[in-house]
Design brief:
- The chain contains 18 helices and 23 strands.
- It is of the alpha/beta class.
- The chain is globular.
- The strands form five sheets. It has a nine-stranded mixed β-sheet with strand order 13-12-14-15-23-22-21-18-19, sandwiched between helices. A seven-stranded parallel β-sheet has the order 5-2-6-1-7-10-11, sandwiched between helices. A three-stranded mixed β-sheet has the order 16-17-20, with helices on one face.
Length: 543
């Protein structure tokens, strides 16, 4: 039961979420789910991911290795878990929501060069650990949070995460016992030959934590089946955690059912008691209604997602989730056909793309697979298949139209070929003198003005919007008149009309491509209007 008291605003409380045994257990979903449960009780929640790798941010990392790069409103390139956080707690996070070892070391070394440490010997303790703690507090303060949930990346026992674990151990001493707690997410595997669940991996993981000076307050046990009372009691005995704080977290049919399952297990109740949180009674009615709606299926469609990173689905995580959000509100089962862009050629296009109800080309960088994407855009245009292009997808649509409709067979992008004959896509002027890769992009939320009576303005229900961007190449205005005369509709501009933001084509059921990334603003209980309009167009065209 929630503790309801009328007193002055309490100090920020901190919840640290750690993972053990193996990676990929869903720490991020567990943390995000807890965030949703606490927000449903009227608390102001913020979230943060601490990543132990040495990159300053994930912006230059290959999506095949690390998944998508999620962009915040204020232009930070962050870990994909930040996208989960935003979708679950329905809050816009900021540049402080993702901290890497690289960012910590870089800041400390800069401070040393500036003389900030007044000649002291700069060491892991206290300088690195203090900087980590400063970043944790800064995130909470910048969001004016009641509760800050902090996920520590990696697995307990990893060498590279030790400074973070030491920092959060110290953090509890400074903030006080009632203001800080630890949740450990660990695997309880099922051994098929012996037909039993095994607790020893969790026990060893907790022992590793204890050796670092951290006693978990809650154990979240990941399993493919219910663990039962007996397993909980055994873990309680050997891990020194109350039985009520042993939380079962079995595989769910969808991500969005996890908060409801964890609520049934009492996760939020244990956190509220442990931190003595003052909050309202829970109200999960909107989330429950959304989950129930997701089970009401009246239609089925197949969307072809054509990209260069299709071997790792997480490379397009926000795009996929945005389609799922739109699917919920149209009662549709969306089947995604993952299509490797390099497999699409003039000879294979019909084989690869036939039978699709819709086609989507997401963002990306680099030359590999671009000709296949151009062929895909042609196929969607000529066969009148509803089409959505995002970022690079808009540039691809522009190149295809220039080549095959506007009579510019040499059209292309200077990103793909610096000596291209007709650079319909060029480098934006502000980036011409920048040579570094990291952070040298148009990043974050910018205003966009839409043309009335267009597909895109109909989708939004307005002509003035704000969307998140991540690009350095854009539509070359030198070709604007030529392409417009050939039938390309420019239906979105930046307010100064220097950047083309949206293009459409005439005589087509629905063909829209945007320079920005709408997927970063979609929510499961509030689907992005562009994805919703796209899916509605797919369903209409299917009939």
């Amino acid at each position: 039961m929630s503790i309801v008291l009328k007193t002055n605003k309490m100090a920020c409380k901190y919840v640290f979420v750690l993972g053990g045994v193996v990676s990929g257990l869903g720490k991020g979903i567990t943390a995000a789910s807890l965030g949703r449960l606490l927000k449903s009780r009227g608390l102001k929640v913020t979230m943060q991911k601490l990543d132990p790798y040495l990159n300053r941010d994930p912006g230059t990392m290959n999506p095949i290795q690390h998944g998508e790069v999620f962009v915040t409103e204020d232009g930070a390139e962050t870990d994909l878990d930040v996208g989960h956080y935003e979708r679950f707690i329905d809050e816009n996070l900021n540049k402080h929501s993702n901290v890497t070892s690289g960012k910590i070391y870089y800041t400390v070394l800069e401070n040393e060069r500036k003389g900030v440490y007044a000649g002291s010997t700069v060491q892991m303790i206290p300088h690195i650990t203090n900087m980590i703690q400063d970043k944790i507090r800064l995130n909470a303060k910048s969001n004016k949070a009641d509760v800050a949930i902090v996920e520590v990346g990696g697995t307990v026992g990893d060498y590279e995460s030790l400074p973070f674990l030491e920092a959060i151990r110290q953090f509890s001493l400074e903030e006080g016992y009632n203001n800080c707690m630890y949740i450990h997410v660990a695997l309880v595997p099922f051994i098929t030959p012996s037909n039993e669940l095994k607790t020893k991996p969790v026990q060893h993981s907790v022992k590793e934590l204890l050796s670092l000076g951290i006693q978990p307050d809650v154990l979240v046990c990941r399993s493919d089946r219910p663990i039962g009372k007996e397993i909980k009691e055994k873990l309680s005995l050997f891990c020194n955690v109350k039985t009520a704080s042993i939380i079962e977290n079995i595989n769910a049919p969808s991500l969005y059912e996890v908060p409801l399952a964890l609520e049934e297990e009492g996760l939020a109740t244990q956190v509220i008691k442990r931190l003595r949180l003052r909050c309202k009674e829970k109200d999960l009615s909107d989330w429950t209604a959304m989950v129930e709606m997701s089970k009401q299926i009246d239609h089925q469609v197949t969307i072809g997602l054509v990209g260069k990173y299709t071997e790792l689905k997480d490379a397009y995580l926000s795009v996929v989730e945005s389609l799922n959000h739109a699917a919920i509100f149209t009662h549709t089962d969306v089947n995604i056909r993952w299509i490797e862009a390099e497999a699409v050629t003039p000879e294979t296009a019909d084989k690869e793309l036939k039978g699709l109800d819709g086609i989507l080309i997401p963002g990306g960088f680099g030359v590999r697979g671009t000709e296949g994407k151009i062929e895909t855009a042609r196929y969607a245009r000529e066969n009148k298949i509803p089409f959505l292009g995002i970022c690079l997808g808009m540039q691809i649509a522009t190149i295809e139209f220039a080549r095959n409709v506007a009579g510019l067979p040499g059209a292309g992008s200077v990103e793909l070929d610096p000596n291209v004959k007709d650079p319909v896509i060029h480098l934006m002027s502000e980036f011409e003198k920048k040579r570094k890769m990291g952070g040298t992009l148009k990043l974050g939320s910018y205003p966009v003005e839409l043309t009335p009576n267009s597909h895109v303005s109909a989708a939004y229900g307005t002509t003035k919007i704000d969307e998140r961007h991540r690009h350095r190449y854009a539509f070359n205005l030198d070709y604007l008149d030529r392409l417009k005369k050939s039938g390309l509709k420019i239906t979105g501009f930046s307010p100064d009309r220097k950047i083309v933001e949206v293009v459409e084509i005439e005589d087509h059921p629905w063909y829209v491509a945007c320079q920005y990334h709408p997927e970063f603003k979609s929510r499961p209980n509030r689907p992005h209007p562009l994805f919703l309009a796209y899916l509605k167009a797919v369903l209409k065209n299917q009939k």
